[in-house]
User: What shape does this take?
Amino acid sequence: MANASTPVTTIDPAEAAHFGAMAADWWDPHGSSGMLHRLNPVRLVYLRSQMDRHWQLDETSFKPMAGRTALDVGCGAGLLCEPLARLGAAVTGIDAAPENVAAARVHASQSGLTIDYRAGGVEGLGGETFDLVTSLEVIEHVSDPAGFIAGLAGALAEGGLLILSTPNRTALSRLAMITLAEGTGRIPRGTHDWNKFLTPAELIALIEAAGLSVVDTRGLSFSAAKGFVLSDDVKLDYFVTAVRA
Assistant: This one.
């Protein structure tokens, strides 16, 4: 039982250990994080569309996020942090697994990028706020989704943008992500607990309870011809974008 001296955290130690064990080959597109590499292009298309809309960014600029700060929570070894840094943002990445943070720092250094990587949870930010807060495929791995969303909301600056993605809790996601992807080794076994997946209605309720307003929801689907694509179908996975209410 927690007491006044026990720090509150949404980190699940077993989940942190699971992903920390994948750190060494996180940047290998054919390794244990290969699925994330295949997801990343469509993630970036969605993020860029929401950032362009929200801030009316210059589509011709090589550094459209210059002068803005970004936080990626559950950053792994930096698959999202590095593109955000290349767009000009001052990027902070935090992850529960110190092994991932170490791998992220090495890769950023090799890539000539300056990114502030930290080991820990969203609760350890100490009141810092950021213009853009992202957390993709993470909330299904935390111990307290409501507390996690509250932490993300607390890290969002006035006029900022929060973007999340997560699997939906449907028969399709169970079949695709656990029976097939984990069953065939495309994703390491034990990566997902289907019972921890959130439906869009559940996630939106948590976001609104944290004082934010959802401005966009978009599905992430799989096409045999094109791979992962944005769609109106949220049955497999989906993005949610929110701002301060």
Observations:
- The chain has one domain: 13-244.
- Residues 1-7 have pLDDT under 50 and may be disordered.
- The helical segments are 13-20, 34-55, 81-86, 98-110, 145-154, 171-182, 200-209.
- Residues 93 and 117 are 5 Å apart (CA to CA).
